[in-house]
Backbone:
């Protein structure tokens, strides 16, 4: 077996049994990156020397009997997480030269547990996008292609497109990602892997470049549900440096994967049956219901009546918070500075931000500035916060009737790199099934569950109660086993 | 409602983003497209609903306060390491006061 084909769990076992060393495992991944990254562009920065030094140190720790839970496991880190001494760009020209002097809490937790970092994964600029097409460092290509049109290059989804493509193509055993409206789950579904956005507050936001602070959550992507569970345990935990970090115990998520679904009540929200939804998405959803029923779960129809207002709510709240968060990029303390010979301070700000931000980021800052401006705050921002409260209330009522909710992950399979790029609202519709979990703060997991007629991966989504990722992992694992998703992307290290 | 070009320029100014004259029309079209779509929220009945601020799924208390004490400091070189321009231990900007 090629070392890049291990699952993360399998790699941990192989390392423990001495079948492979971290240096060998890391080198195999670096070789794969050298071979495939020039085409996929999944990594913005590859830290080969650092990775090998970390792997060597890891092998030494293991030899001394001090192996951590992720000892020697090579991972990709989304380039939104600050990594001390390593370029951190957020996919933006405005941070194109930024080397943080500090480590994000989440990446620091992974290092504490022995992980090796291969490099920084590409993403939509400031995590704003659903195709990875807004990155200042070029688009990422999906390692999957259509059966009947293999020449068409497809998007990996976004914003965590580099993380998802790297894991699917075997350029990492797992990766960190972040999800503000679907940025973990949609790319995971498009690339045929698993990914979980945990409950808001589960992972610290300290050191993660901020987009929309009340919606942003970090989480893992990996090739199995259990691998996600292992990574999430390391990433999670209370952090005094994030005032919204939840001071709650971190359970053994991996142990919960094997619980099964017997006796669980699975909610099927009728409002997620969209007009014009492709038949194959509908069929996949029905298949998921049948699998869970066969596993002993009870299906319950539920209603989430405010679902159709979720995306417009999101596109008020997220840009509003983004316009505030991104005010810090002013050309003074870090990042790009752009001036003309006679620039005063205000001109410096305006030129720097015009040159440093891409079109989608500018649009969202402009929308956010508008909805927060005097005279419009109540009509847009306050209104959206009230509708958000109704969306959360819908879920509160649903949890009286069910223990987890099953939905499709995305309304379609991966689309072409040249599609949807010039209609912002059409791009936003990608997140129609995922965005409600961000607005309500709930955990959501995407699981690969089948192939489209074109041979592309399709995912199902499991939503759970706040801080009940364990049930989400149990349901996700049951779906994963029933689906037995063994298809592989054409572009992968061992192909 | 629809934003006119003067409003587009005013928003860009508030956001401190230099907007070239040639780009005003395109930005106007894009923002009006997005705002027109957002407009549907006005039809939702939110009478008596408390707005949800913050992302905590269980609501309040959403945030805690830490003790008001110094926890860090004394590392000007690290703080200034990414500065586009510095003078001594300060960030440098174009002259503000004549």
Residues:
């Amino acid at each position: 077996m090629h070392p890049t084909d291990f699952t993360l769990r399998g790699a941990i076992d192989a390392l423990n049994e001495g079948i492979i060393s971290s240096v060998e495992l890391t080198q195999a991944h670096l070789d794969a990156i050298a071979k495939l990254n020039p085409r996929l562009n999944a990594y913005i920065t590859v830290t080969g020397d650092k990775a090998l030094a970390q792997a060597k140190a890891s092998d030494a720790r293991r030899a001394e009997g001090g192996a951590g839970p992720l000892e020697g496991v090579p991972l990709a880190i989304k380039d939104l997480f600050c990594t001390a001494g390593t370029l951190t760009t957020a996919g933006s020209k405005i941070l194109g030269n930024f080397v943080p002097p500090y480590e994000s809490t989440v990446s620091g937790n992974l290092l504490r547990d022995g992980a090796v970092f291969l490099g920084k994964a590409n993403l939509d600029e400031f995590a704003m996008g659903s195709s990875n097409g807004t990155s200042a460092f070029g688009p990422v290509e999906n390692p999957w292609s259509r059966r009947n049109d293999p020449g068409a290059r497809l998007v990996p989804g976004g914003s965590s497109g580099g993380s998802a493509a790297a894991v699917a193509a075997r350029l990492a055993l797992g990766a960190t990602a972040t999800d503000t409206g679907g940025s973990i789950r949609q790319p995971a579904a498009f690339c045929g892997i698993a990914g979980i956005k945990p409950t808001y507050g589960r992972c610290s936001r300290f050191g993660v470049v901020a987009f929309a602070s009340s919606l942003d959550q970090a989480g893992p992507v990996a090739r199995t549900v259990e691998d996600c569970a292992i990574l999430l345990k390391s990433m999670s935990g209370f952090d005094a440096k994030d005032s919204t970090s939840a001071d709650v115990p971190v359970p053994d998520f991996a142990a919960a994967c094997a619980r099964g679904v017997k006796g669980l009540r699975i909610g099927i929200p009728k409002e997620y049956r969209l007009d014009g939804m492709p038949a194959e998405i509908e069929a996949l959803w029905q298949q998921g219901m049948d699998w869970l029923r066969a596993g002993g779960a009870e299906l319950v129809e539920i209603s989430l009546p405010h679902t159709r207002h979720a995306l417009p709510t999101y596109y008020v709240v997220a840009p509003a918070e983004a316009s505030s968060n991104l005010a810090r990029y002013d050309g003074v303390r870090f990042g790009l500075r752009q001036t003309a010979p006679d620039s005063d301070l205000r001109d410096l700000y305006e030129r720097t931000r015009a040159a440093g931000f891409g079109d989608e980021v500018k649009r969202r800052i402009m929308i956010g500035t508008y909805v927060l401006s005097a005279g419009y705050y109540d009509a847009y921002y306050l209104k959206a916060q009230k509708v958000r409260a109704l969306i959360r209330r819908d879920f509160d009522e649903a949890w009286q009737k069910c223990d987890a909710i099953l939905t499709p992950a995305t309304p379609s399979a991966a689309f072409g790199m040249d599609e949807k790029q010039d209609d912002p609202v059409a791009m936003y519709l990608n997140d129609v099934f995922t965005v409600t979990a961000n607005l309500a703060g709930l955990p959501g997991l995407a699981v690969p569950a089948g192939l489209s007629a074109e041979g592309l991966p399709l995912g199902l989504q499991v939503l759970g109660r706040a801080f009940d990722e364990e049930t989400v992992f149990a349901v996700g694992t049951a779906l994963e086993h029933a689906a037995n998703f063994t298809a592989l992307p054409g572009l992968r290290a061992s192909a | 409602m629809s934003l006119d070009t003067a409003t587009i320029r005013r928003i860009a100014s508030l956001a401190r983003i230099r907007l070239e004259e040639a780009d005003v029309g395109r930005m106007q079209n894009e923002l009006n497209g997005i705002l027109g779509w957002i407009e549907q929220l006005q039809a939702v009945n939110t009478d008596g609903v408390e707005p949800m601020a913050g992302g905590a799924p269980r609501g309040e208390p959403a945030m805690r306060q830490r003790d008001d004490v110094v926890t860090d400091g004394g590392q000007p070189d690290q703080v200034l390491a990414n500065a586009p321009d510095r003078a001594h231990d300060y960030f440098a900007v174009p002259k503000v006061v004549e």
Summary: Chain B has three helices and two strands.
